[in-house]
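Hmm, what's this shape?
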Amino acid sequence: MLLNLILELRSSQRKQDQEIAQFRKDFLTMKHELDLCTLNIHNNESAETRFMVLENRNKTDKLQQELENTSKYVNSMKMEFQIKYATVNKSKELEHDIESLKSLKAINNLNALFDVRNQTQHIENELQKTNSKLDATVSDVEARKQDFLALYQKADLTEQHLEERWAKLSKRVILSARLKPGSYLQNQRILFESIETANGVQNKSSILNSGQFTCEHNGIYHISVYITTNSHQSRYFVLKNGQRFAEAFVSFESYYQTGTTTFVTSMNVGDEFELVADPTLYVYGGYESGITIMQIH
């Protein structure tokens, strides 16, 4: 916009300069003609010459008036040009100030951009650290997951083993019985009064009725017998399949005494255990006399 205004002012000034130069040229031409006419008047003062002089003077006056008008117009144009030139200079100063402000704003924007860039780099670094920590955490969680799965599998396997072990244990033979009180003659079988505990035993009725334990499961058994009596110099035998396997003595007269025997033996299905008196033996029943048979393997 400012450039167009300057070009327009310069074009107007050139046009005015050209017009003034043309007026000066015409004025000089008229003056030269006037001088020639004046010279001719002195030499030849004819009526025709006077007429030409008057005509030239009128033209001269007209040209002079036009020249004055043109000079005034030129002066006014100069003043207008000066005003516009001052305006243009002021506009240039304003434009320079605007450019300076723009540069300053650009610098501020650049600084702000650098700040944003720095913050962005900081955020990227923190994000990378966070991602690294997250990856480490994920790896640790995955490792813990594998450990947990291994422990779970081990626990599951252990549980299976325990269940199998418990199933085997639940099938083991356990028999706890109290002996029937009374006086037993030599080689007479001592009977059971009651069965307190029985596991893995199907023939409980037969044991109560006969006083004889018949093995139903192969294995190693722990057998414990205790009999309370006041018989003098008495004993009892533990028979396995009719053969003496263990015995216990009591020898005090008129005093209660408990004779105990305990042992471990291997038994097969069909093997039989029984207790017999030797010679005569009085058995105190209830909790004072009893037998325990337990399969340990």
Q: What stands out?
A: Residues 47-171 form the longest helix (125 residues).
